[in-house]
Design brief:
single chain, 35% helix, 0% strand
């Protein structure tokens, strides 16, 4: 695992280690941004379960 960690050039958040990710001991959601870039229509659909823009009333 040490060799794998040395070979990767990842920008991991503090406290997340390559070895833990490879062995399934780290939560991969820790690598995701808090507020990912996406169109407003997608964000609205995720929040409300329906498209925005009055397509369905």
């Amino acid at each position: 695992m040490t060799k794998a960690a040395e070979l990767t050039d990842l920008r991991l958040p503090p406290g997340v280690r390559v070895g833990d990710l490879l062995q399934g001991r780290a939560d991969p959601t820790a690598l995701l941004p808090e507020d990912p870039a996406m169109p407003d229509s997608v964000r609205d659909y995720l929040a409300n379960g329906r498209p925005s823009g009055g397509l369905h009333g």
